[in-house]
Design a protein that fits this description.
This protein is an alpha/beta fold. It has one domain. It is 37% helix and 15% strand.
Length: 289
């Protein structure tokens, strides 16, 4: 078995979101134009440079957060879709955080306990990279419970990336900065702060990263554009990096297309574009739809 069964569940969860149902007919047309009808590996990869313009294709007014028909749920879903498109045919799966599609062990590993209170990060999207020899269960009603058992056995071989997705950059940059700091920290017994529960923690993973991905929804003249701006400084040193749905701007943000080499290179047996071409040719993952 392969990761495609898990990918299918992750994508089915997105298809049930009303925002996705409303926006996808418009977004699909734009994405198809930009990618040569999903047949050109280079253009598929470079969709990460254009997700902002695709997102705005469902604009109901000006380019401010309140006028976007997509909104936060739409951006999270669009990012998840793009990640899974590029991951097609690999052992990496992107999903919006939900107990229905994220193995319980990994939810436990990322739980923060402060005193008697437990909370999880605002992880809008997470990416799992499974080892090559991972034993995926057969599809069926018990798929997620069986998958979780295997994840618990192999947690030391699994990579996890948490990706916080926000439409607005300026208003939200401090949140991923603080969560990333929490996950990096080693808390002594006197702090009463603990990372993980039920015996699992991010420290048990093969690799863990925390990233920020923004549209951004601000008008061009108001979006961060310099490494000296506070919004940029806040996310400049995240373990997983800072990305947006546009072409890379040095010192400000990387294109989302760069996240694969930065954080998830172990998912690919060949380079990213060769992997996409193989998926296209074999009609694997989302290319089979």
């Amino acid at each position: 078995m392969t990761a495609e069964n898990h990918r299918a569940l992750a994508m089915d969860a997105i298809k049930g979101i009303k925002t996705w149902q409303d926006c996808w007919p418009v977004w699909e047309i734009e994405l198809s134009k930009l990618s040569g009808n999903f047949s050109d590996a280079k253009k598929v990869h470079e969709l990460g440079n254009h997700l902002r313009e695709v997102f705005f294709a469902t604009n109901t007014g000006g380019r401010d957060q309140g006028s976007l028909s997509g909104g936060g749920a739409g951006w999270e879903s669009l990012v998840t879709w793009y990640l899974n498109l590029v991951f097609s045919g690999t052992n990496a799966v992107a999903m919006r955080q939900s107990q229905a599609v994220v193995p319980r062990t990994l939810l436990d590993a990322t739980t923060i306990r402060y005193g008697n209170h437990q909370t999880n990060t605002e992880s809008d999207v997470c990416v799992i990279v499974y080892p090559d020899d991972f034993d995926f269960p057969d599809p069926g009603k018990s798929f997620m419970s069986e998958l979780d058992k295997e994840v618990a056995k192999r947690i030391g071989d699994i990579e996890l990336g948490i990706i916080q997705c926000k439409t607005n950059w300026n208003d939200n940059a401090q949140v991923p900065m603080l969560w990333d700091m929490v996950y990096r920290a080693s808390f002594g017994p006197g702090t009463n702060i603990h990372i993980g529960m039920n015996g699992y923690s991010v420290k048990h993973l093969r690799r863990f990263s925390y990233s920020f991905v923004t549209v951004p929804s601000q008008k061009e003249g108001r979006m961060p554009n310099s490494s000296t701006q506070m919004a940029v400084k806040r996310v400049a040193n995240l373990t997983g990096g800072n990305y947006w749905g546009m072409a890379t701007k040095s010192g400000v943000a990387l294109s989302l297309a760069e996240i694969f080499d930065s954080n998830f290179s172990n998912a690919f047996k060949v380079n990213v574009r060769a992997s996409i071409q193989n998926a296209i040719a074999g009609k694997l993952g989302l290319f089979s739809a």
